Amino acid sequence: MSHLDEKLEPILHDVLQRNPGETEFHQSVREVLESLGPVVTKHPSYLDQALIERLCEPERQIIFRVPWVDDQGQVRINRGFRVQFNSALGPYKGGTRFHPTVNVGIIKFLAFQQVFKNGLTGMPIGGGKGGSDFDPKGRSDGELMRFCQSFMTELWRHIGEYTDVPAGDIGVGQREIGYMFGQFKRLTNRYEAGVLTGKGLSYGGSLARSEATGYGAVYFAQRMLEQHGQGLEGMKISVSGTGNVALHAMQKAVELGATVTACSDSSGYIHDPDGLDVGLICDIKANRNERISAYTKDVRGSATFYSHDSGSIWDVPCDCGLPCATQNELDHHHARTLVNNGAIAIIEGANMPCTSQAVRVFQTGGVLFAPGKAANAGGVATSALEMQQNASRDSWSFEKTNQRLEAIMVDIHDRCHDMAAEYDDPGNYALGANVGGFVRVAEAMQALGII
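Now predict its structure.
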């Protein structure tokens, strides 16, 4: 179990004092700092020149008004954000989230996580994140377009292929990226394809980008299990969420021989001990845009739907759990249930879906735990591959991109594994991910001077 080194206590205290009320940001900073005690003991130079203090302070925080007109002619006002956290390794890179819960603390936590995630990929990209408290649910295409155009009318001046490269996230898919890219092109009078990633294939997008985060999490899981003498074949899997990441994670897990026995959306979860039809789930969510409960109407068998009032997907026994919904969805009570039910591994497909207490339960309970900043890195890695294709005016095959993705995820796993072993805590992937990402960013910051 990690404890905060006394040399790092003043840094955390300063972060808490300067960023009041930003709970998720506090949590993400604390989690990283708790891993760095042995690092600064072995390499005290990382404490020089306020390096860690600078690493915990965003280089730039942008907050702006987003006015738009709904279909009834009413003027609406939302708030837009872009946190450019650290550019030591390259241009800021990170997603854009449209969700009513978005605030500056959420975006800062996501941007901070992104710094380490991007560092683990070994690619030349810094960390940033953006979004708005706009809720896209129930909005018409016209309303979505007008909102995205207004959002980009402010954001365009802060981004560029050598400055900051946003992508999608919750509430932002290819449609929204297309509307934003169109407005960027109109405002700048240039076709700068590398300014956004997650684009459609017809105007500079990459094959395998949609699949990348979910596939990447499963590639990481397979490598982690192999390292410990096991594999996904024959494993029973529970996956929370039925968004892009969850759906593709389920597809890849089944392809590698696992059986998905439970999955969820915001209304509840379905469970079938004999295995769910992942193809039907993908049709219900991606094509028909229906609730997961529709599955039990389409399938005769042992599948049962449970509302969230009836319990949690994490009450269902499984060998591997993939939380792929949102931050802090899996708490210490869920973690104890999973440990007691014999779970072997937990792989974070979302950003920080497990609370700090849940992670400690997994670690003390002997459950392999893959943190999101490592297991979730496939999406941003493939976005960087999209940037490469844009820069070379090229388009790669699905197979080539997917092979690169798998190789990157294996490298990320091995770096996390080796870093944990180097600091005398083998198997602690949370430690390995934090230290592995930190060292890459810290070395670049030292080389660049005090900026």
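The chain is about 45% helix and 15% strand.
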